[in-house]
Amino acid sequence: MTLQQLKYVIEVANRGSINEAAKRLFISQPSLSNAIRDLEEEIQISIFDRSNKGISLSKEGVEFLSYARQVVEQAELLESRYLNAKPSSQHFSVSTQHYAFAVNAFVSLVSEYGQDEYELALRETKTYEIIEDVKNLRSEIGILYLNEFNSKVINKLLKSANLQFNSLFIAKPHIFISIKNPLAKQSIVTIDQLQNYPYLSFDQGEYNSFHFAEEILSTMSHQKSIRVNDRATLFNLLIGLNGYTISTGVLSSDLNGNEIIPVPLDCDETINVGWISHSHISLSKLGTAYVEALQQAIAPMAF
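-> structure tokens emitted (303 positions)
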């Protein structure tokens, strides 16, 4: 087992593709594949599962990767300390539902820990993909919510993937609407009052089950319904069509301006927003710092 082989494994895991990793490492795809297979034969485990759909970490591979990253990180610290080597670029990824506070925390992380070189990723994506990203270590941390309706299904997936959920805050439901919406002047809005307005939600793609919806009350029917893929489009439609979506009520005027406001929704539901990570893998330095930044980002909010 060599340090170079460990770096190869890390790069393939980061890219989710042998071909893409080979390009980044400036070696041929066969050479990279052979190096990884030699390592697997030596340690007698399959680090990656290979199929027609591509390559992904095996259950044993997830554990191996966590140790490999620690070894490579320590080796780079030694080189930096004693060989005056240039510090390597930092790597960190987070996958999240569409929350402004998650972006604010990411900005704080980069501002405090960003070096001259870094490769970071913030993926605002679908609920099922968040779980898959963290499961396969494409992201170290995922951010999503649980409630009474979806918790049984989501917790079952987390348990099978050896992931744990850590609560950040529990919020009462709000609607996000334009300040020009007729409902904007109300102190609280009922579900019946929303019937004539377009309902906006985030598309969940192949896994479009009610349990993976980013919005609570996902089984409720709507006369007018629009699905979108990104937060900017959703906010533009909130303004342009006088639409609404259901969320936590946590907004960032720095990121989203003052054209969108939260209004409490009259219902008995709660939203438990938290972060997920591997149960038996310690967070990296950047992972720990990001969780701290999340907590700081939500600290001024009243729940």
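The chain has a mean pLDDT of 89.
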